[in-house]
């Protein structure tokens, strides 16, 4: 009996998948080597980018280690975690903003094994980025101090609840002037991540549910299912820019909350937001762009797109969707082919040509290369 066409095709498909996986890993490892040329062991940060960007640099390292079993990669990544944990606070731009005068004292902080005050600076979004980064480090290493640090950061942020709008959420920083999307998405995502890792699961599930309920009703999600930058002084949608990271972090939070409680309504909401975001942010080749490209992005905006892809991949891991995979792969392939210079540095415009390059643009693009592994 001659073999069926399907049986002949199977080994070819397997070989193609293995080859694609190998290519994706090789690209990400190359990007890691280049990113580490910016790493400064004395500060625990990456030269050319800022404090909160450093948290995202660390997160992409963790994400790579979770999908790449290379001993070299894991040794590098774990070494960065240990060093940054030790010396990183010297880079905190506002270390004096770490006491109750910059956070409400309405909730008593729990006693933790790690002093989280070294990692907070009165900008509540900065704080939450570091919380998520240390959760990512915990996922790789299982080191409890990393998880306790993230939980300690959450403790301080929870003291800032509620914001001045709608009896919920938190303000963007200690001045309590602006209620924005990213800070509230981060607070939500941090709670949802902790719900799947910390011992007091129900406590964090409750926080995540309350924060999501407040956020979805806040008015920041517009009629097109994209998310504006924040709320006006009278607590209405301010019509601010549709930045990619504002479309992103909520997706990861909803994916983590679904993992915690298995409620389809969360991934359904995430899918609606993700598809609207892709329609807004992707070009005809399915590559993600920021409105400030190619030459007007500041040192914050250069980080945004990688955050979008990272959280889209997290949603894809819970609720796979071909539309998500297409964008991730298209962005990763375009970065490698069109947005990489001779030094393997990755720029801000993923469709190319390479222009602005630093640790922020590079780590952001590396997020897409890492996300493409296993797609």
TrEMBL record:
SUPFAM superfamilies: Six-hairpin glycosidases
GO molecular function: hydrolase activity, acting on glycosyl bonds
Keyword entries, A-Z: Glycosidase, Hydrolase, Signal
The organism's place on the tree of life at top rank: Eukaryota
UniProt keyword annotation of Hydrolase present: yes
Gene3D superfamilies listed in its UniProt record: 1.50.10.20
Signal peptide: 1-20
Biological process terms in GO annotation: carbohydrate metabolic process
PANTHER family noted in UniProt: ENDO MANNANASE, GH76 FAMILY (EUROFUNG), MEIOTICALLY UP-REGULATED GENE 191 PROTEIN
UniProt protein name: Six-hairpin glycosidase
